[in-house]
Design goal:
- This protein is of the alpha/beta class.
- It folds into four domains: 29 residues; 130 residues, Chitobiase/beta-hexosaminidase domain 2-like (Chitobiase, domain 2, 2-Layer Sandwich), CATH 3.30.379.10; 338 residues, Glycosidases (TIM Barrel); 170 residues, no CATH class.
- 44% of the residues lie in helices and 15% in strands.
- Strands 1, 2, 3, 4, 5, 6, 7 and 8 form an eight-stranded mixed sheet that branches. An eight-stranded parallel barrel has the order 9-10-13-14-15-16-17-18, surrounded by five helices. Strands 11-12 form a two-stranded antiparallel ribbon.
- Helix 2 packs parallel to helix 3, helix 4 packs parallel to helix 6 and helix 21 packs antiparallel against helix 22.
- The radius of gyration is 28 Å and the shape is globular.
- The protein binds acetamide.
- Acetamide binds next to loops.
- The site of acetamide has 4 residues, from loops.
C-alpha cells in the first residue's frame, strides 16, 4: 500500500470516528426524543425573553391552536412573562417562524417531515404539511435549555421524518374504564412524542364502553354505567386530530365478548348460559354465534352507528383468543362446520371475519385484527396486528409471517407495557425484527403499537404504566434503526419523563397520593425510598391465573406505587458493577450512602403508626435494614466473621421472596457486592 492510500484510509477512519463521536456528543447535549433523522449543531442560540413570538404563514389547519399551546408550555417551563400569548401571522421578525405548504388530511402515510433551523436570533421551521409543523414544534420545546441567566433554544439544524407511519398507543378502557380526561392527557403526551395512532380498545369481557342508541342494552347491562357517549367520542377524535393523531376503534369479536352477551345473550353460542360481565382477567368462553344471521345484523347496525364517529379508514375487530369452546359444545355449529367442510374453528372464524370484512367494506372501512385473523382465506386487504411472538409454525413471529404472506402488519408483541418489563427490553425490539426482508416485505411493516391492557390499572395509576417507557418506544418507531444506545436513551428519557408532567401526565405525582394512603400520614419518605428499589412483579405474575385481582380490587397498594426501572436500584446495581471492576474510595462512599439511606429509612418507617397495609412491608424493611447495617460495617473497614457473611446470605434469600406483589431489585447487586468483598478479604 502506498503512503497516500494509507493516509486516505486513516483520514476516512478519523472522519467516521469523529462523526460517531459527534453523534454521541450531540445526544449528550440535546434531550431530544425521538432522536431526529439528521441533526447538526451550530453556535447559534435563541433566547426566550418577553419579546418571544411565534409566527405562522397561515391560520388554517392545526398549527395556530397548537402553537398557542406551545407558547403556554414555554412560558410555564421557563417562567418568562411573554407579551404575546398567541401566534402572529406572517411576521418576518418573530422569534419562531413557521411555514407549511398545506393542511393535511389525517391518514396513514401523511407527510410528517419538517426542517428546523436555529439561526442567529430566530428559529425557522418549515414543513410540507401542518402535521409536520406540529412535530417540529415539539422538537422546538425539547430544544429549550438554560443556564443561570436565561432560557434559550440551542443551535441546531434538523431534518426529520418518521421511519414508520403507524406509531400507536392502545388503551384498553374495558378492563378498567378511563374517562375522557385520562385519554386527553395521554393524547397530549403521545403528540409530544410524535406518536400518531390512538387505538381505542372499546369492548371486552369486562365492559362494553360505547353508548349505543340502536342497542342500548349494551351500555345499560354491559358497562357498569361506565361508557362514552357519542359527543364524548367526537370530542376525543377531534382532540386527537388536532394533534395529528388518528383514532382506530376496536370492537373485539367473536371472543372477548362477554359484556356484549350480558346485554344480548341470544347472540351467544351457548344456549341457556348465564352471561355476566366478567370480573376476573383471562380468556373466557362466551363467543358470538357465527351461524346466527342475527349476529351479522347486530354487527352491521352497530358498525353503522360507530363508523361515522371515526373518520379513520381502519376498524379493528379484535378476533383474538377465541378458543371456540362454546362453538365445540354447540351441536348446530358443529353441523354447520361439517356442511361447509370447515376443518376446524379457524375456518369458522375466517368465515365470520370475511363476513365482517364485507360489512366494513360497505362503510369504506378496512378490517384490522389481531394475529388470529390471519387464516387461510383471509383477504390480503386485512391488516394484521401482531401481538404474539414466536409461535408454532413460524419461528420468526407472526408479524414476519404476515408481511411474507403479503399482509400489511403492525407490531405490538414486545411493546406490551402492561408486562412491566424494563424500558431496555422494549426499546431494543425493532418492529421489523432482525429477519432479512425484501424491500416489498419491509414496506408492509406499517409500524408498531404500544399496548396498555388495563386489568391492573385505574385512572390513578395508568400513566405510571404507560410513561415514561412509551416515550422510548416512540423513538423506536420514529427514529433510525441505528439509534439504539441504551445509555443515551436513558439519559434523555430521564429528562423527557419530567417534561411529560407538564402535559398533565401523573406518572410521577400519583405516587405521593398512594403513599399517603398507605402510610395514613404525610410522612411518606421511608416508603418513597422503598419505591426506588422495589418493582411490581412482572409478566402477569402479579395476577397469577387472573383471579387474584378483580375489577373492583384495590389498585392503591404498594405494588401500584412501584414502577419498573426503579431508579435507585438501577443506579445501585451499576455502581456495584463499577465497584467490582475497579473499587475506589469514592465508590465505596457512594455505596455506604445507599446502605445508610435504607437503614435510616427503616428507622423512619418504624415511627409510622401501624396499619394493616403498612404492616405487610415491615418484615422486608427490617431485613433490608439488617443487611444494610452489615454492609456498612464491612465497607467502613470492619473485617467480618463468616457467620456475619452467612447472615447476609440468609437475609438476602429472604429478601429475594416477593413481597406484596413486588420484588426487591437490588438483591443481585447485593450478592455481587458480597462476592467482591469476600474476594477482597473483608470477610474472613
Ligand atoms: C391480546 O393480547 N389478546 C391481543
Amino acid at each position: 500500500m502506498t503512503n497516500s492510500i494509507v493516509k486516505t484510509i486513516f483520514l476516512a477512519l478519523t472522519f467516521v470516528s469523529s462523526m460517531i463521536h459527534c453523534q454521541e456528543k450531540l445526544s449528550d447535549k440535546y434531550n431530544l426524543m425521538p432522536w431526529p433523522q439528521e441533526i447538526q449543531s451550530n453556535a447559534n442560540r435563541v433566547k426566550i425573553a418577553k419579546d418571544f413570538t411565534i409566527s405562522i404563514n397561515k391560520k388554517e389547519g392545526r398549527v395556530y391552536n397548537y402553537a398557542t399551546n406551545i407558547i403556554r408550555r414555554i412560558t410555564n417551563r421557563t417562567g418568562v412573562f411573554v407579551d404575546q400569548g398567541f401566534p402572529l401571522l406572517n411576521d418576518k421578525n418573530a422569534t419562531v417562524r413557521v411555514s407549511f405548504d398545506e393542511v393535511a388530511e389525517l391518514k396513514l402515510g401523511v407527510d410528517e417531515s419538517y426542517e428546523l433551523d436555529v439561526n442567529n436570533n430566530f428559529v425557522e421551521i418549515s414543513a410540507k404539511t401542518d402535521i409536520g409543523a406540529l412535530r417540529a414544534l415539539e422538537t422546538l420545546v425539547q430544544l429549550i435549555d438554560h443556564n443561570e441567566n436565561s432560557f434559550f433554544v440551542n443551535g441546531v439544524v434538523i431534518k426529520d421524518n418518521p421511519r414508520y407511519g403507524w406509531r400507536g398507543l392502545m388503551i384498553d378502557v374495558s378492563r378498567h374504564f378511563h374517562p375522557v380526561e385520562v385519554l386527553k392527557r395521554n393524547l397530549d403526551a403521545m403528540a409530544s412524542m410524535k406518536m400518531n395512532v390512538f387505538h381505542w380498545h372499546l369492548s371486552d369481557d369486562q365492559g362494553f364502553r360505547f353508548k349505543s342508541d340502536t342497542y342500548p342494552k349494551l351500555h345499560e347491562l354491559g358497562s357498569d354505567g361506565l361508557y362514552y357517549t357519542k359527543p364524548q367520542i367526537r370530542d376525543i377524535v377531534s382532540y386527537a386530530n388536532k394533534r395529528g393523531i388518528r383514532v382506530v376503534p376496536e370492537i373485539d369479536v367473536p371472543g372477548h365478548a362477554t359484556a356484549i352477551l350480558a346485554a344480548y345473550p341470544e347472540l351467544g353460542s351457548k344456549d341457556g348460559y348465564d352471561y355476566k360481565i366478567e370480573r376476573f382477567s383471562g380468556v373466557f368462553h362466551p363467543t358470538l354465534n357465527p351461524i346466527n344471521p342475527k349476529v351479522y345484523t347486530f354487527l352491521d347496525n352497530l358498525f353503522a352507528e360507530i363508523v361515522p364517529l371515526f373518520p379513520d379508514v381502519y376498524f379493528h375487530i379484535g378476533g383474538d383468543e377465541n378458543e371456540g369452546k362454546h362453538w365445540d359444545e354447540n351441536h348446530e355449529i358443529q353441523k354447520f362446520k361439517n356442511k361447509k367442510g370447515f376443518k376446524n374453528n379457524h375456518d369458522l372464524q375466517t368465515y365470520f371475519n370475511i363476513k365482517l370484512q364485507k360489512i366494513l367494506a360497505k362503510y369504506d372501512r378496512k378490517l384490522m385484527g389481531w394475529d388470529e385473523i390471519m387464516t387461510d382465506g383471509m383477504p390480503k386487504s386485512a391488516i394484521i396486528h401482531s401481538w404474539r411472538g414466536v409461535n408454532e409454525g413460524f419461528k420468526d413471529g407472526t408479524l414476519i409471517e404476515a408481511v411474507k404472506k403479503g399482509y400489511q402488519a403492525v407490531l405490538s408483541n414486545d411493546y406490551y407495557i402492561d408486562r412491566v418489563q424494563s424500558v431496555d427490553h422494549h426499546y431494543l425490539f425493532d418492529p421489523a425484527g432482525d429477519v432479512p426482508l425484501t424491500k416489498e416485505e419491509e414496506s408492509r411493516v406499517l409500524g408498531g403499537e404500544v399496548t396498555m391492557w388495563s386489568e391492573l390499572v385505574t385512572p390513578l395509576t395508568v400513566d405510571s404504566r404507560i410513561w415514561p417507557r412509551t416515550a422510548a418506544i416512540a423513538e423506536r418507531f420514529w427514529s433510525s434503526k441505528e439509534v439504539k444506545d441504551l445509555k443515551s436513551m436513558r439519559k434523555r428519557l430521564a429528562v423527557v419523563s419530567f417534561q411529560l408532567e407538564e402535559l398533565g401526565i401523573t406518572h410521577l405525582s400519583y405516587r405521593n397520593q398512594l403513599l399517603r394512603n398507605i402510610a395514613k400520614s404525610k410522612n411518606t419518605e421511608s416508603l418513597e425510598l422503598l419505591t426506588a428499589i422495589f418493582e411490581p412483579l412482572k409478566i402477569y405474575t402479579r395476577n397469577e391465573g387472573g383471579t387474584e385481582y378483580k375489577t373492583f380490587s384495590p389498585f392503591t397498594l404498594f405494588a401500584d406505587a412501584c414502577v419498573v426501572d426503579a431508579e435507585d436500584a438501577y443506579n445501585f446495581n451499576l455502581l456495584v458493577d463499577s465497584y467490582s471492576d475497579n473499587p475506589t474510595t469514592e465508590k465505596s462512599e457512594e455505596l455506604k450512602g445507599y446502605f445508610s439511606k435504607w437503614k435510616e429509612g427503616h428507622a423512619k418507617f418504624k415511627k409510622l403508626k401501624n396499619n394493616p397495609i403498612l404492616n405487610e412491608l415491615g418484615n422486608h424493611y427490617e431485613n433490608l435494614s439488617k443487611v444494610s447495617s452489615i454492609y456498612l460495617e464491612i465497607l467502613k473497614g470492619g473485617s467480618l466473621s463468616k457467620s456475619k457473611g452467612n447472615e447476609i446470605k440468609e437475609t438476602i434469600e429472604k429478601l429475594k421472596k416477593p413481597m406484596v406483589d413486588t420484588e426487591l431489585v437490588i438483591v443481585s447487586g447485593m450478592e455481587k457486592l458480597l462476592k467482591k468483598l469476600k474476594k477482597e478479604g473483608s470477610i474472613k
